[in-house]
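Data availability (excerpt). The following record was deposited with the supplementary files.
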Amino acid sequence: MLPTKEVTSRLANEDAVLVRVDSAQGSVPREAGAWMAVFGNTVVGTIGGGHLELQAIEEARLRLAGAAGAPVLRYPLGPALGQCCGGVVHLRYENLGAADAASLAQRLHTGATPLALFGGGHVGKALIHVLGTLPFAIAWIDSRDEIFPAQVPDNVRCEHSDPVQAAVAELAPGSRVLVMSFSHAEDLDIVAACLKRLRERADLPYVGLIGSKTKWATFRHRLEERGFGADELARITCPIGIPGITGKEPEVIAVAVAAQLLQTPLP
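Predicted structure:
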């Protein structure tokens, strides 16, 4: 079970304290927004481990037992905590109950990077398994409504779009886009729609197309016929995935592509 779903499920029966990294300076184990939920007998998520996390768990359980405290506490990561990172972490503590479960998932994914995945084939499904554990807010889009599984990670929203390329205009600004539909014709239309949006708004920092160099050479020619220039076509990544990983299994491709997405700078 994914961490957010485990938290919301447990909240139906027991209270918790949510501990989030409110801000951080210098060298620290986790970035702002990292979180863990502390229950009476278990912890879901992590703020980086070590003595910082142990002390935060102790503080959270005191609050579960009714102790009061400031909403945000400051932790210097020096000898007093047995950590030599040298930075400073501010942790925010929030008591949670059953009434908070409905809104919690959306709150925890606030700030996640938007990503659109076009295509529900073998690689698409493998990518959902990988990306569902990473800090992305995913729109999974296909022209075939029946291909989506009944259960998806809680950071994934399934969307039926026919024609499929019509969904490009509605993507969140800053979306990373992966194109791997069931047909080359759909792939071409989706890429063309992405190029049109880049021409108008320039707000898609990564557009990746699955396929070989031969496929991209064919697509380049067809996109040039639609009026797109060399500078525009240079915005498309094809093949996708970090170099050096040669396996063709869907799961191997998914890991290589996920790594490339994590390397994509913010716009």
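Summary of structural features: Residues 194 and 200 are 10 Å apart (CA to CA).
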